[in-house]
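Reminder: ligand-aware prediction takes two inputs, not one.
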Amino acid sequence: MKIEINSLKDYQHEYEKSIFSPEEFWEEKANDFVWKKKFEKVLEWNFDVPVNRWYIGGKLNITESCLDRHLEKSSDKIAFIWEPNSPSEKSIHISYRELFSKVCRFANVLKNNNVKRGDRVCIYLPMIPELVVAMLACARIGAIHSVIYAGFSSGSLANRVLDAKAKIVITSDGAYRGEKIIPLKAITDEALANCPEVARVIVVKRTGEDVAIISGRDVWWHDEETKTTDNFPAEVMDAEDVLFILYTSGSTGKPKGIVHSCASYMVYVDYTFRNVFHCEQNYVYWCTADIGWVTGHSYLVYGPLLSGITSVMFEGIPTYPNAERWWGLVDKHKVNVFYTSPTAIRTLEMLGLDPITKHDLGSLKLLGTVGEPINESAWQWYHKNIGKRKCFIVDTWWQTETGGIVLSPLLNVSEAKPGFAMHPLPGIQPVIVNEKGEELKENDVEGNLCIKFPWPGILRTVYGDHERCKKTYFSDYPDLYFTGDGCKRDNDGHYRITGRVDDVIKVSGHLMGTAEIENAINGHLIVVESAVVGFPHAIKGNAICAFVVTYEHPEHPENLKKEILEQVKNTVGPIAKPEKIYFVKGLPKTRSGKIMRRILRKILEGERQNFGDTSTLIDQEIIGDILSSISDATLVN
Ligand code: WT7
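Here is what comes back for the chain with WT7:
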């Protein structure tokens, strides 16, 4: 596999070229794919509109670069080693040829079920091979996939199905998750009661649950597969046609459907996968992310397949049946490159060294982390106990909106600096701005992270709401893409992400919008309003605390608390459940009605006096009231 960046000199060479001749640079990077027609122009952009168009005039189908082109030389090579939730069930090896055949067969199934080019297909599945097959079959037929994390509630599923205007949903009877079975089909039925446009549900049999089959709407995946063949010529797509929509939480309103298009997403994910993870052709690579998040899209599905690499795909959780599971799998499959999240690392760190020392882990060569800032002790633990001090760690910073990795340490280029995402990848022009929006050009500065030039992975729009795309990412600072993250650049010019600066909270690496959770809490009859903020948590990175105002003083606060948790679980999903709930008399608000979450965060940090500038606070007494409710509270989890 081609790896362009093998030394500091290589990096400097690539980086300079990408900045001084971006079009030439990205044209070169696009050469090795299967094109039906070559593009005429590399880039057209304007951050004001915003418009970002890449490889204009090009025609292709991404699945031909992921699958067809590997068939000649490496059709028997394993694409995925699938490991089931339970160790007593056998793992399955799926070769590139088998995957190709499954994808083509399922593309026919989609066609037979009336899915057409451009239609949105919502996929609500556990981590089973059918999830990958369904995504690629959508791409093959030119339909737009929108994968919805199987941990989301029926309410969250319904919102996304409605927003995407999907007419078809793919799900399974149930999902295994450790000891639990999650009834996905029942949740889907509940969601679809509010989605009358959905005319077809394709159901994978996984857990053998009894499920309701609604005649005329629901069909079984395995029945449909037998009705067709595995021959499906790829639909010829325009470079700028939409490949997928993936929902991400925002600070206000409903989740945003982030839109990525076919050609440049492919080029960017491929380039970053090769140069960040340094896989050789015989390597086994394992990304532990769920495909319901962008990490799974870019670096479990598309990136490794574009490179023709063998990946592990794991259905279960790291602690089932015990804390040895992951390390046993690393040895069993001789994993060389391992990519996970700080939350997972901290969870396993808490469980001690015993589960690790029984395993060799000698196959590991490079480790990765993503999703939130990694604290130094977790980094050191990962480096020492998993990497045995010999594996390089890539702390990759990026977002659903960036499509692929944007900042990362690079093998043979960077020194090991815990907590630093280090360098911009070629093509990335990071800018740190102060509160006034002025660019801080020197080193040793801190501010908000922006990017001033497009890169191929950049989002195209927010599905159905281009104005929101403009407002969220391209309006805070003129001519810049705003990431929503705080960032430092140290004396050596190395980047370190400090965390979100807006009203979204990263819980166990999952982005949660304050508005989503507050809406769920406010849905309770006795609740007037609420405010949620994040606070530091040893394993989750951040946990959620809710300040809740009720119509009358709750008689049984413990019961009310349980009801609120249930409400959040059912409307957003279990990951959004607050860790702490305080019942308070009122919330700190500005004259314009905006909740000053900053004050609530300070209260949680233990601050009792110094709340900074509170001049815009409409009710000066409120802080005292909140402090006294908190000290009375017996309600902390
Ligand atoms: C947000 C994006 C990118 C895949 C998974 C998350 C945070 C991500 C890092 C990192 C510090 C990180 C940022 C970012 N984040 N990676 N290596 N160091 N923070 O995608 O759900 O769109 O979340 O995750 O805050 O803005 P996402």
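The domain at 8-61+241-499 is CATH 3.40.50.12780 (Rossmann fold). The chain has three domains: 8-61+241-499, 95-235, 506-630. We will return to this case in the review session.
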